[in-house]
Amino acid sequence: MHKEKRKHAIPMPKQKVEERIHNFNEVALGYSMEQAVAEAERCIQCPKPQCIQGCPVEVNIPAFIKKIREKKFDEAIRIIKEKNSLPAICGRVCPQEEQCQKFCVLGKKGEPMAIGRLERFVADCELQKEVTVPPRPKLSMSGKVAVVGSGPAGLTAAADLAKLGHEVVVFEALHVPGGVLVYGIPEFRLPKKIVQAEVNYIKKLEVDIITNHMIGRLYTIDELFERGFDAVFIGTGAGLPGFIGIPGENLGGIYSANEFLIRVNLMRAYMFPEYDTPIRVGKKVAVIGGGNVAMDSARCSLRLGAEEVWIVYRRSRKEMPARLEEIENAEEEGIKFRFLAVPVRFLGDEHDWVTGMECVKMQLGEPDESGRRRPVPIEGSEFIMEVDTVVVAIGQTPNPIIQRTTKGLKTTRWGTIIVNEKTGKTSKKGVYAGGDVVSGAATVISAMGAGKRAARSIHRYLLRKKRMQQRKEYCQ
Amino acid sequence: MYKVLKKAELAPEIKLLEVNAPEVAKKAKPGQFVIIRIDEKGERFPLTLAEWEPKKGTITLIFLEVGVSTRKLGALGTGDEILDVVGPLGNPSDIKHYGSVAVVCGGVGTAAAYPIAKALKEAGNQVVSIIGARTEELLILEDEMKGLSDELYISTDDGSKGYKGFVSDVLRMLIEKGYRFDIVYAIGPPLMMRATANVTKPHSIKTIVSLNPIMVDGMGMCGACRVTVSGETRFACLDGPEFDGHLVDFDELIKRLRVYLSEEKQAAELYEKSRGIKRA
Q1: Are the CB atoms for A237 and A198 separated by under 8 Å?
Q2: In which band, very low, low, confident or very high, does the pLDDT at B24 lie, cut at 50, 70 and 90?
Q3: What pLDDT is stored for residue A128 in this prediction?
Q4: Residue among A219, A240, A252 minimizing CB distance to B259
Q5: What pLDDT is stored for residue B279 in this prediction?
Q6: How is chain A split among helix, strand and coil, in percent rounded to 5?
């Protein structure tokens, strides 16, 4: 029995499939205290832990697991929060299998430690009571930093800069902070209460978060400097949805995944008409794409009452970029998969509502620059799928407004901002960037890692700048 | 929170609110809009800025009560608050000296056209305005438009005031009479903008329209407001809202505006029921 326990992680309790497909409540229910402690006991406390290298924000994983084992949960969360200001979120949405857990030595002979589940457990424990805030250091030379965007990158940069003693103002264009955490990831994967609680923690660090301010339209980056900011961090993400660019794509019933998820998650259209934002989902939904956004859209469609939901993906299952756990959840819930197919045009009825899509079958050819085998259409293999709702989830690029309105900010041809990887420094003095606006759509935790690195170099920049200012004043 | 400082009824179901929003007021330019959300359960929807006063820190919204959100907004009074106002959004109008300009507007679109007409006049243009409505009592901003225009024409569908017919008919008449316009601005319901663009096209008069598709975020995040211009998909909130009227696929815009008709009706009925309002 004991040996068996060492090989396998304690499974995550989940809502039953037949219940959860009818609600938006969280699917994964979290460990109980007993389960958390039992899982923590599996950790062999390596003298040279491998797991930490897989964590983009360098949480001291064995140390916090040891505290769980000792049932010192307060101390466990404090260890995590030294590095990570959003642990309840990371514990839920990080692809741990590709990060910390990938390096866990237990994974060589069995299942790796369930690090994410343990992180979530201690974070949730803390959220149930009064959250402790570290004292703010007194800096003799603190600066004022504008953080543009309140997604994972911006929140992390803001928290770290505040903890270092700087004055931080976060500008958010939407009416609530959180970025993709509130508009993108559905309630059943990440409850909005949790996001709000973590944002509140960051506010307690004396970070000022201002909503309804779209930088680039209301103020340009240059105007932020004119308004007295010493440095700017751009963490505006990759929010511009991509469309396929095929005939019929503007028919009724065809959504970008962003629109679909914004309506559902941010505007709570699933509670229409109690909430005012409508959404229309038919009986047969096709979601185009194979990433997490596609899985989220498909699972939302099901919960909105669709009878049949298809994921249509141009490569095979093996190449799907979505998290394995989410693919499995989707499968359990009855989402169907149509691999190696691509829509080539949409068909509509007399009201211009989508009724079907013509697809072409694909085969996998040579690997492309991403290392994945490139899908090639099979001539003459066209077929028609009857659908009445389509969600296009083929990826996003950065919103271009800031890039268009900021002189001297170098970008790639995809519109991502060019930075020094280690420092987050852009081509423009005093301006830093990180997260999806630099990398293109990636993960929450990699955005947090970028926010952390940028905060570190902004801190150095500010100290240097302030020192020079002092010297100047002294000489005068 | 954004406080309502003044309220007026311009015509039946057309209301004016002056709202405290100092930062927006300081930055607004003709042609731009705001997205508002009235309360916690509200939807986000766009309204073009009709006026703004940087010194007072106010913006003016003029809207027709058509659905649940505009009715909720119309029910607000002085001292009430709007939960969210974000803006200015969209690209400003390209205001410069063109020469002779026709500003053609219909219904509540006159409110959106007003600041543009004003700026065009201030830029030294000869401004001929054509304003229209279904019937006389629905005409708005007549005096304001008159004050800034070199010539003002009025049309009503039922002929209760001015010319009987559509604003596009008046424009056609003027062109046939020999008026030469260097540019035409057409702002109003899509049918009216399409009709106006059809009038100017054979004469190759550059025609700018301000599109009003469904919007959610209004910042380029979702593509709900996508329109086809010159065969290409564009986002009205990001690339517009103004486009070359001769290149816009109006049929598609009109169809896309009808997507949520039944839900809109359902929500509006529910709202009225909750307030005990009965409507014919």
Answers
A1: no
A2: very high
A3: 86
A4: A252
A5: 52
A6: 40, 15, 45
- On whether the CB atoms of residues A145 and A231 are closer than 8 A, the answer is yes
Q: Which of B86, B216, B256 sits opposite A259 (nearest CB)?
A: B216
CB contacts, 8 Å: B217 with chain A: 173-174, 262
Looking at the complex, report in whole angstroms how far the Cα of residue A87 sits from the nearest Cα belonging to chain B: 27
The alpha carbon of residue B45 and the mean position of all alpha carbons in its chain are separated, in whole angstroms, by 13
Q: What is the pTM of this model?
A: 0.93
Give the residue from B183, B181, B149, B154 showing the smallest Cα distance to B167. B154
Which residue from A minimizes the CA distance to B90? A217
Inter-chain touch A218–B252, beta carbons under 8 Å = no
Tens digit of each residue's pLDDT (9 = 90 or more) over B84-120: 999 999 999 999 999 999 999 999 999 999 999 999 9
pLDDT, residue B278, reads 56
B66 part of contact set with chain A, CB < 8 Å: no
pLDDT score for B280: 46
Candidates A424, A427, A422; CA nearest to A437 is A424
Contacts of A276 in chain B (CB under 8 A): 41-43, 68-69, 267
Q: Which residues of B touch A253 (CB under 8 A)?
A: 259
Q: Is the ipTM of this complex over 0.90?
A: yes
A13 touches A30 (CB < 8 A): yes
Query: At what angle are helices B190-200 and B250-257 packed, to 10 degrees?
Result: 170
- Cβ–Cβ gap A280/B263 under 8 Å: yes
For A191-238, write each residue's pLDDT tens digit.
999 999 889 989 999 999 999 999 999 999 999 999 999 999 999 999
Distance CA A108, CA A92 (A): 24
Residue in A148, A175, A271, A279 to test binding to B, most B beta-carbons within 10 Å: A175
Q: How far away is chain A from the Cα of B159, in angstroms, using its nearest Cα? A: 33
Q: Which residues of B touch A212 (CB under 8 A)?
A: 84-86
Q: What is the DSSP string of A346-393?
A: EEE-TTSBEEEEEEEEEEEEEE-TTSSEEEEEPTT--EEEE-SEEEE-
A85: helix, strand or coil: coil
pLDDT digits (tens, 9 = 90+) for A429-465: 999 999 999 999 888 989 999 999 999 999 999 999 8
Distance from CA of B214 to the nearest CA of A (A): 11
Measured between alpha carbons, how far is B157 from A247 in angstroms, rounded to an integer?
37
Give the model's confidence band at A31: pLDDT under 50 very low, under 70 low, under 90 confident, else very high: very high
Summary mean pLDDT of chain B: 93
- Quick one: DSSP state of residue A100? G
Tell whether B263 is within 8 A of chain A (Cβ).
yes
Find, among A195, A151, A190, the residue nearest to A173 by Cα: A151
> Which residue of chain A comes nearest to B222, CA vs CA?
A259
* DSSP, residue by residue, chain B: -EEEEEEEEEETTEEEEEEE-HHHHHH--TT-EEEEE-STTPPPEEEEEEEEETTTTEEEEEEE--SHHHHHHHT--TT-EESEEEEEESPPP-----SEEEEEEETTHHHHHHHHHHHHHHTT-EEEEEEEESSGGG--SHHHHHHH-SEEEEEETTSSSSEES-HHHHHHHHHHHT---SEEEEESSHHHHHHHHHHHGGGT--EEEE-----SSSSSSS-TTEEEETTEEEEHHHH-SEEETTTB-HHHHHHHHTTTHHHHHHHHHHHHHHHT----
Is the confidence at residue A1, as pLDDT, over 60? no
Number of cross-chain residue pairs from A and B with Cβ atoms under 8 Å apart: 119
Q: Which residue does chain B place closest to A245, by CA atoms?
A: B233
For residue A385, the tally of other CB atoms under 10 A from its CB is 17
